[in-house]
Amino acid sequence: MEKLLKFLKAKKSFLPPLKKKYVILDSSQSFIFKNFFKESNTVIINTRYEHFNLFILLKIFFKLKISYEDYIIEYLKYVKCTIIVSFIENNIFYYHLKKQFPEKKIILIQNGMRPVNFFEELAKHKNLKIDYLFTLSDLYTSKFKKYVDAKFITLGSFKNNLVDKEIQNNKNSVLFISSGPSFERSMGVFGNIRVMSDIYFAPEKILLPIIYDFCKRRNLALKILVRSKKSEQIAYEKNFYQKVINSSNFEFLQNNDWDQSYKFIDKSKLIVSIYSTMGLESLSRGNRTIFFNVRDKATKLKNLNLFWSDDEIDPKGPFWTNEITRDEFERLADYAISSSDDEWKKSLRKIIPKFINYDAGNKQFLKVLDYENSK
């Protein structure tokens, strides 16, 4: 019934799709490919029930097939593409497409951190294969290699790589990367795993007053990078931080464009993160970023440990810690702000490219495209 309602609400087209060389699976964030694929030679297949091609639907109905996977497979057959690309590498169905289309090149790009649960789910499937998998880091490459047959390339964050680093002098603000407190009673973690919001966001209630006090003493402006997109959720998020800090004397930064977050972090003297891909992206850009890796402790879920994939990393380092205290904040902040460029770069070697890499302009992706197009 739920799928039927989604179908009824979805947009629909009646004409057969055009034959194209490139297919982008999933419209979500597909705009990032606009400079890599010509629109005239590319089709986007919507995979979230937001749009259906009725011509393709009729074809699978006549074949007595009714699953959404059948719909995508039939769509791919009809457009006769040679290269399939997706920014949604956590859709396990995509790793089965090579069986149906051995002649097509399938390229997936990791678009965010993945918990241990995701790899436990991958382990349940056999014969997963694609042509190329671009990963965030060397450690993710090592995890994927256990379950997927592919050529692996450690790329870092695809979107992050597209935004030129802005060199700013006289930075005078501390930016906290929000994880988006919402009015929902619980937070989705993975699959059916959910955590009560009060528990999930307990670390923010301890950390934000410490940051605010630090900013007052150092004469720095506090800025909070919002995660929510809808106005009602943004208002709730802002109210949450006002209550936690017991003040409205901070700036709430909203993302109006996809690349604006990266510009915000480049303009900050210090960036603070609990558990976010954006925090790692900031670090890969060379920004002075510190981490309070405590979400796993608060929720009792190991997969919310920022460094779950590496048992050898120490609980505390020059710019990260597993506890929230004023002393720990001062230690991390002082190091991030006061250390020399050489010291900072040396300390980054513990994380980059282990946990995230950086490839300005996605040169390695372009190299693969050029190679495949030359065949």
Could you walk me through the main structural features you see in this protein, from its secondary elements to its overall organization?
With 375 residues, the protein is of the alpha/beta class. The chain has 2 domains: 2-161 and 360-373, Rossmann fold, CATH 3.40.50; 164-348, Rossmann fold (3-Layer(aba) Sandwich), CATH 3.40.50.2000. The chain contains 16 helices and 16 strands. It has helices at 2-9, 54-62, 68-79, 97-100, 116-122, 138-145, 158-162, 197-200, 202-218, 231-245, 260-266, 277-284, 295-299, 326-338, 341-348, 363-373, and strands at residues 11-13, 22-25, 42-45, 51-53, 83-86, 105-109, 128-135, 148-154, 173-177, 186-190, 193-196, 221-225, 251-253, 270-273, 289-292, 320-321. Helix 13 (295-299) links the parallel strand 15 and strand 16. Helix 2 (54-62) packs across helix 3 (68-79). The mean pLDDT is 94.
Key terms:
375 residues; single chain; 6-stranded parallel sheet; Rossmann fold
Count of extended strands: 16
Secondary structure class reads alpha/beta
Work out the radius of gyration. 22 Å
Q: Quickly give the CATH architecture of the largest domain.
A: 3-Layer(aba) Sandwich
Top CATH class of the largest domain: Alpha Beta
**How many structural domains can be distinguished in the coordinates?**
2
Cα distance spanning the termini:
46 Å
Annotated CATH topology of the largest domain: Rossmann fold
Major sheet characteristics: 6 strands, parallel
How much beta, percentage-wise? 15-25%
> In which range does the helix fraction lie?
25-40%
Number of helix segments?
A: 16
The dominant shape is globular
Strand order within the widest sheet?
3-2-5-6-7-8
Query: What's the CATH superfamily of the largest domain, by name?
Result: Glycogen Phosphorylase B
Low-confidence stretches: none
Mean pLDDT: 94
